[in-house]
Write a structure and sequence with these properties.
Blueprint: E1 3-8, E2 11-16, H1 25-38, H2 45-55, H3 91-116, H4 123-126, H5 129-186
Antiparallel strand pairs: 1-2
Length: 187
């Protein structure tokens, strides 16, 4: 902890651990990049922490950019994949897994709803000062991002459960159809 000094060419990179929260975002990025290029970033945990605070949300991919997007297709539609020879599926096991996922999701939703509803972070509630201010900023950002993406997360999990049911139904229907066809041939 304390003062850190490094020089590259004519540029000096000096900082004090205790004053990092007071540095500009640009200076934090500059210091971070310097020590990262030097391969010594691991020796600067407080700088890494402050950089994470400064860049929170900038480098984090949005859930909506991935498969958490609003559903554009019916989850019960055919996937278009075929099972290879010797591959057996137990539709009842797929349905049991679906039920387990949905039950666990219901339990989780109760807990996540409580987190999603957290608001009103203030410095006074966490002790004030620059650390309290930093914590309030991080907590507010985290709560906002979580609230924005919560519905996508739940919809994605429900989509997996719907696909399990659709798969179980499709395998059962295929089995029943095959069984009926072979019975007709034997008759």
């Amino acid at each position: 902890m304390g003062d850190h000094r490094s020089t590259t060419g004519t540029t000096s990179y000096t900082y004090d651990d205790d004053h990092l929260p007071e540095y500009s975002d640009e200076r934090i990025r500059e210091l971070y990049n310097h020590y990262q290029e030097q391969g010594t970033l691991g020796d600067h945990p407080r700088l890494q922490h402050q950089h994470n605070i400064v860049t929170m949300g900038e480098e984090t991919p949005k859930v909506g950019d991935y498969q958490g997007n609003t559903r554009t297709s019916d989850p019960s539609t055919k996937w278009g994949k075929e099972a290879k020879d010797g591959y057996e599926v137990d539709p009842e096991e797929l349905r049991n897994l679906r039920t387990t996922i949905l039950n666990e999701l219901d339990d989780l939703k109760g807990k996540l709803d409580a987190v999603k509803g957290l608001k009103g972070f203030t410095e006074e509630k966490v002790g004030g000062g620059s650390i309290g201010n930093t914590w309030v900023g991080m907590a507010t950002k985290a709560s906002t991002v979580f609230g924005e993406n919560y519905g996508h997360i739940v919809a994605s999990i429900e989509g997996v459960a719907a696909k399990l049911k659709a798969s179980a139904d499709a395998y059962e229907n295929a089995h029943d159809s095959t069984k009926k066809s072979t019975e007709n041939v034997q008759a």
